């Protein structure tokens, strides 16, 4: 069994600035950490590895310094890492990012399960996992709070939503994004940290993948950020309803009719 866990490196601080030209986050000079939700994805893969004949490959897209998050995941116990790093990938939105990641997964080959964290804490979209599933044309499960291999080629998840739970079954290969309720990620031991530097970390550039250049970077990103701003607080007039409950209800109905809301 081969498991790919897709991880992202995010800024270690909330004190970030916006690039005035691209309107994207300016990550230059910012220390990075592995996205916290992705640690739950790595942990789940390692638990599968412990009970099955499985290998765990970490996959990330970004500049060369993203290798530190891959090393952290390998120190947790993953077998290898792949970093997708090329200027051609810069400025990608979730669609362009998902396309490159899906092509890399195809390149890795014979992947049975792809696991994502619920979302990245810097953008909070939660879109890349489902986009990758669509490009791979594989079944997907999102917001998984429990996950188990229920048969040799089958996975069962409990999907935790705001006010309900769903139990879903998918045939492998499949793509799953997981919630933090799934598990508690392990801490790398000093010995595992040392051993992680002996594990293979491969960097793939543009020419290492089968890519359509029109789908890369800003050119392949239909989402355009035109403006980033903090909304101006708006003070609203408060009208207190008076009298008996029946009188107050009448005042409320009149106010709604006056505003053409009823």
Automatic annotation (TrEMBL):
Residues in Electron transfer flavoprotein alpha/beta-subunit N-terminal domain copies: 22-213
GO MF annotation: an example: electron transfer activity
CDD domains, per database record: ETF_beta (cd01714)
Top-rank taxon: Bacteria
InterPro entries cross-referenced by the UniProt entry: ETF_a/b_N, ETF_b, ETF_beta_N, Rossmann-like_a/b/a_fold
Gene3D superfamilies assigned: HUPs (3.40.50.620)
Protein name from the UniProt record: Electron transfer flavoprotein small subunit
Origin species: Candidatus Levilactobacillus faecigallinarum
Lineage of origin: Bacteria, Bacillati, Bacillota, Bacilli, Lactobacillales
